[in-house]
């Protein structure tokens, strides 16, 4: 991306990695994205959301307004009004919700590994396409 002349601004969401001590939730993640775009003074922004981050990226896109050029969802749930991140999962997210309830608000690693295994077999790799087709 850099070599092609594009600016790239990777962002670690609050509550994760080096920001793990920061209390966070979905609304915080949306604000993280919007604040970074504003702090950097960015225009013609292409927001990229992978996996869960597709949800806050989709919501941040609405708040960025005319600064936004497009949104790209990579292996992500595409946010739909009134649906949750888990809505598109085979069980509607029931296993994740049960694990969180059983583990004091945390997703246990054993369930996370099971989910990765379950979704891995569904992966189908297709020839790469130019994203401009979409």
Give the arrangement of secondary structure elements.
Blueprint: H1 26-40, E1 45-50, H2 54-64, E2 68-74, H3 94-102, H4 109-120
Parallel strand pairs: 1-2
Helix pairs in contact: 1-2
What's a concise summary of this model?
The chain is built from four helices and two strands.
Q: What would you note in describing this structure?
A:
The chain has 134 residues and is α+β, with helices and mostly antiparallel strands. Helix content is 35%, strand content 10%. It is built from 4 helices and 2 strands. The protein has helices spanning 26-40, 54-64, 94-102, 109-120, and strands at residues 45-50, 68-74. Strands 1-2 form a two-stranded parallel ribbon. Helix 2 links the parallel strand 1 and strand 2 (68-74). Helix 1 crosses helix 2. The chain is globular, with a radius of gyration of 17 Å. The model is unreliable at 116-134 (pLDDT under 50).
- Which term fits the overall shape? globular
Task: Trace the largest sheet across and list its strands.
Answer: 1-2
Identify low-pLDDT runs.
116-134
Oligomer: single chain
Question: What's the total count of β strands?
Answer: 2
| Broad structural category | alpha+beta
From the N-terminal CA to the C-terminal CA, the straight-line distance is 19 Å
Question: How large a portion of the residues is in β-strands, by DSSP E?
Answer: 5-15%
Largest sheet: 2 strands, parallel
Instruction: Tell me the series of helices and strands, N- to C-terminal.
Output: HEHEHH
Count of helical regions: 4
The mean pLDDT is: 75
């Amino acid at each position: 991306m850099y070599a092609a002349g594009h600016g790239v601004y990777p962002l670690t969401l609050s509550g994760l990695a080096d920001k793990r001590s920061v209390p966070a939730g979905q609304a915080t993640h949306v604000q993280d994205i919007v604040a970074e775009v504003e702090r950097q003074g960015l225009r013609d922004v292409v927001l990229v959301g992978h996996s869960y981050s597709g949800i806050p990226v989709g919501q941040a896109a609405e708040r960025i307004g005319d600064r936004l050029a497009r949104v790209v969802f990579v292996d992500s749930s595409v946010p739909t009004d009134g649906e949750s991140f888990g809505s598109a999962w085979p069980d509607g997210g029931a296993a994740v919700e049960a694990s969180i309830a059983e583990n004091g608000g945390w997703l246990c690693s054993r369930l996370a590994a099971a989910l990765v295994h379950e979704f891995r077999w569904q992966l189908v790799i297709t020839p790469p396409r130019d994203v401009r087709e979409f």
